[in-house]
Every structure is written in structure tokens, then in C-alpha cells.
Write a structure and sequence with these properties.
Helix content is 0%, strand content 49%. The chain is an all-beta fold. The chain starts with a strand and ends with a strand.
């Protein structure tokens, strides 16, 4: 059974850090692009970051650029989102998703036609992990 499980969320003070993990089971992440999304209360889900199967060409939303870092460890079948300098506006449920779409960088590219993949272009999703940034 294909499954993605996020972990690492929690309550952190402004300026703090968290590292989210996205563990895959039932399939290998090697040929998949990985995306991180988030949904704050009362808001639509938005893309945060993505990384292609090669591990190169990570992309970030402008709101997190310079603070968040996406990475992947195919040997562990896990992806990560390191979040530093957290702000209250980062509070949301964070989701990881994977896509095997052929894009600008080949199979498992998170960039298609010079833009990050849309939500609808991801194949599988995790259940989400809550991140709360508050003093």
C-alpha cells in the first residue's frame, strides 16, 4: 500500500526551527518529485517548496525563501523540510505530496513549463502534520 507519512510538526516559538519529515512506504521515492504544501485555518492550501527526483532545482514560495530548505534522502525513502526563523504566519497543517510527472527536468520533475507543479499534478498525499508558531 502506497503511503506518505509526515512527522516533526509541533508548537514552536517565533524564531524557532522545526524539521518536517515525509516518509514513503510501499513505493520508492527515487523517481518522484516531492512537494510540500501547507494550509492555514480559513485559507486555501498553498505550495511551499518542491524538489525534483534528481535532488536538484529546489523551488520555494517567496514567503519561505531563505528560511526553509527542502531535501531528500532516497536511501531512507524520506524527504525533509527544514524550517528556520519561523513566524506566526507559518502556522498551518503541512502536507507532503509526490508526483511522477514528466516535466522540465525529466521524470519526477517538480517544474513543468517553468512553473512548480500544481496540487492537481501530484499523485499521492500524506495526512499532514500541524505546525504552530506562537509565543
Amino acid at each position: 500500500q502506497l503511503r506518505l507519512v509526515e512527522s516533526g510538526g509541533g508548537l514552536v516559538q517565533p524564531g524557532g526551527s522545526l524539521r518536517l519529515s515525509c516518509a514513503a512506504s510501499g513505493f520508492t521515492l527515487d523517481y518522484y518529485a516531492i512537494g510540500w504544501f501547507r494550509q492555514a485555518p480559513g485559507k486555501e492550501r498553498e505550495g511551499v517548496s518542491c524538489i525534483s527526483s534528481s535532488g536538484g532545482n529546489p523551488k520555494y514560495a517567496s514567503s519561505v525563501k531563505g528560511r526553509f530548505t527542502i531535501s531528500r534522502d532516497n536511501a531512507k525513502n524520506t524527504a525533509y523540510l527544514q524550517m528556520n526563523s519561523l513566524k506566526p504566519e507559518d502556522t498551518a497543517v503541512y502536507y507532503c505530496a509526490v508526483s511522477s510527472r514528466w516535466g522540465d527536468y525529466g521524470l519526477g520533475s517538480c517544474i513543468l513549463d517553468d512553473r512548480p507543479l500544481l496540487e492537481s499534478e501530484y499523485d499521492y498525499w500524506g495526512q499532514g502534520t500541524q505546525v504552530t508558531v506562537s509565543s
